[in-house]
Amino acid sequence: MSQVSRTLTKLAGLAALALVVAACSPTNDSLSAARSKPPEIVIGPRIIDQAGAYRNFLDRTTAISPAFTDGASVSRAVAIGSTIEPSQIMQGAIAYGVIVALEEPAFVAGVRAQAIGDIQRAQLAESITANPYNVLGIQGSGEAATRVTLVMAEDGQRLYDAGKAVKQSAYDVQKQAWSKAEVADRTGRLASAKAQASVQFDSDLSEADLRGHAATRRPTGGPIEPHYSQSVIRAVAVAALAILGQAGPARNDAIGAVMQDPNINTCTRMTKLNLNQCLAVSKPHYEDIFCLGQHIMMDSGRCVIKASGQKEPYEARFVPTVKPNTPVKATAPAKKPAKKK
Questions:
Q1: For the segment 16-62, what is each residue's pLDDT rounded down to a tens digit?
Q2: Close Cβ partners of 146 (under 8 Å, ≥ 6 residues apart)
Q3: Buried b / exposed e along 103-136 (16+ C-beta atoms within 10 A)
């Protein structure tokens, strides 16, 4: 083969290789498509643990039967209700609200439509982190906030109603001899309740379990005014960050700050204080039942309802009744003292 033929053959091979490389190399259009592809929804393990602990507490506590038969059954029920303190309940309620908001398709689509590229996603995440109320400007946020509001209020009412039944049993069992016996090791019982509540409760529920549970929630209720509570807005804000891929474990501190609602701190503090005081002075078993029903269940349920922004339940303390048509006995006027002669 001549030198010219070898040169032409080499040039032809290089040209073919260039065509293959060009076909395999990403174009500007493909790079743009890759940049605009929405990231996967990322939920940090802390949020999963908080939401799972909340669900476990709610399911176990509302399953407590008010039909107590002995002191041991009361002690078990108090131990179940003391596994998580009120502030952890509220953090769990907001964390579960994050899961609920992610089940609203219009909201997920709205977040992804507003932030297409990496730069836009980072800017939107920074804006929501700095001010959670900015999430309300995203299409579909109203639907997500309404869903979180109704679910949170439903959970709180469920806990409140179960506590009311337990509290009523404190009065019903007073005629039974066992209920009047003094609780054994009252000091140890109080210390145990405080110790259990101070430990951050971990959950055995996975993200798939929680999302599956939230997907089945179909809360009922009337139309919600678009004046959502802080807890609801913060739950929706964290859900938006998860859609943007900005709610992973690397952002635990930032996410934790977004989930703090100062408006319900007073409610949780008073619940914990009243519970500790109640257990400290409680002696017979029926008084422990009262502490369980009123402070562990009803007061915690009221805080969850308050966090949802819905109307809190009203319980009349004491309303005296007057029998109708009761004749009033007339009294004779007092006689004046006789004058001395």
A1: 434 333 444 444 444 444 456 788 899 999 999 999 999 999 999 99
A2: 224
A3: bbeebbebbbebbeeeeebeebbeebbeebebbe
Looking at the DSSP assignment, which residues form a beta bridge with residue 182?
Answer: 284
Q: Does the pTM exceed 0.85?
A: no
Cβ neighbours around 139 below 10 Å, total: 13
How wide is the angle at C-alpha 87 spanned by C-alphas 82 and 89, nearest 5°?
A: 65
| Distance separating alpha carbons of residues 241 and 141, to the nearest angstrom | 13
Query: What's the distance, CA 129 to chain centroid?
Result: 19
CA distance 136 to 150: 17
Contacts of 97 (CB under 8 A, 6+ apart): 148, 151, 152, 231, 232, 235, 236, 239
pLDDT tens column, 71-116: 999 999 998 888 788 888 999 999 999 999 999 999 999 999 998 8
Q: How far is CA 178 from CA 45, 80, 81, 168, 290, in A?
A: 45, 21, 21, 17, 15
Say which amino acid occupies 29.
D
Integer CA distances (angstroms), 140 to 105, 108, 243, in order: 8, 8, 13
